[in-house]
Amino acid sequence: MPNEEKILQLIAKAEQEHTLKKEELTCLLASSQAEEPLAAAADHVRQKFVGDGVHLRGLIEFSNICRQDCMYCGLRRDNQRLERYRLGADEIVGLAEKAKGDGYHTVVLQSGEDMYFTAERLAGIIRRIKALDLAVTLSVGERSFDEYRLWREAGADRYLLRIETTDREVYEKFDPGMSYDNRVRCLRDLRTLGYEVGTGTLVGLPGQTPVSIAEDILFYQKLDADMVGIGPLIPNPDTPLGSAPKGDFHLTRRMVSLLRLLLPEANIPATTAMETMVPHGRELILASGANVVMPNVTEGDSRRKYALYPGKICVADTPAQCRRCMGGRIKAMGRFIAEDKGFRKHRRDLSI
Ligand code: SAH
Fold first, then answer.
1. For ligand 1, atom 12, which residue shows the shortest CA distance?
2. What angle do CA 72, 190, 126 make, to 5 degrees?
3. Is this model's pTM higher than 0.70 or not?
4. How far apart are CA 86 and CA 75, in angstroms?
């Protein structure tokens, strides 16, 4: 068991040099004593590299239809208990327009892997949203290089695709029919095409260990990820992982702080899953290294039906309520809502 002095030394090293070895990462991830000093160091690095602005990204959950069968996810193909929906192009563009009216500068288009949205169809929607002068982030799963290219040419700026875990065996066990190599291929293609690339970990998959989470962090560093979103597993009773233990909130928080220390310029969200698990979890995570929040701007019943996991927060609220609520909470922390599109800053842009 490492002593307190050793822990503080490692954190100081990470804060100065932004590197740690796998064993050092593992030691900090596994240590509950490390949590508060890690959060304090990460908050400091966040302030220094990306400032006090919090970027809001308006999340549009436009279809819960999915061809994949991930064993943790409520949208999985085999889940018969989910009422399925798909929004039309005009509805999606309408939500983006409203988000713009509510002061958002980015929308995130997220869905299951719904093949109704051919590359052409989605490209048309992207072009219409780009004409509103919004940044567009896509999060629609695995597609080919050519499909990603068409969307990039249509104006998409960013792409979110969590690797979920870099433990190949765990990945392929819980994402049946999917291959780890193809997931990595997607991330590489997105990078090649000039997207800002977001990825991340689902913390709490059975079989995951502090060592594999340390490897995830090193993978994100190697990929030079622009965004890293992580959240704890919230077992969904309508899935095969329904009775698995939930992901560890504190481990997830330590991981967020370590990500900030090792990828100081990255955009790191305080995810909805954190708040589903702990009231005001997003504020705690914003104070532990994060600088992004993704409020839901989907309207009506679709909010409830986009049920990745149970107990999702704010399903009965309107987008305007969410925007006001988050705005107030961010100000109360002494932070502010950033007014730019929130592209990733690069160290060479900073005079330090
Ligand atoms: N189809 C898209 C979007 C997936 S949903 C894609 O493949 O990228 C977005 C994220 O929700 C997933 O990457 C996963 O990490 C997370 N998620 C799914 N089920 C979850 C659960 N039960 N608990 C917590 N997070 C979950």
1. 162
2. 85
3. yes
4. 12
**Angle, CA 55 vertex, CA 47 and CA 112 arms, to 5°:** 130
* Architecture (CATH level 2) of domain 23-336: Alpha-Beta Barrel (3.20)
162 lines ligand 1 (CB under 6 A): yes
Q: How confident is the model at residue 351 (pLDDT cuts 50, 70, 90)?
A: very low
Q: What is the pLDDT of residue 349?
A: 53
Nearest CA to ligand 1 atom 7: 141
The DSSP bridge pattern shows strands 135-139 and 106-111 to be parallel
Token pair for residue 72? 């943790």
pLDDT in tens, 164-180: 999 999 999 999 999 99
Domain residue ranges of the chain, discontinuous segments joined by +: 23-336
Whether ligand 1 lies within 6 angstroms of the CB of 167 is answered as no
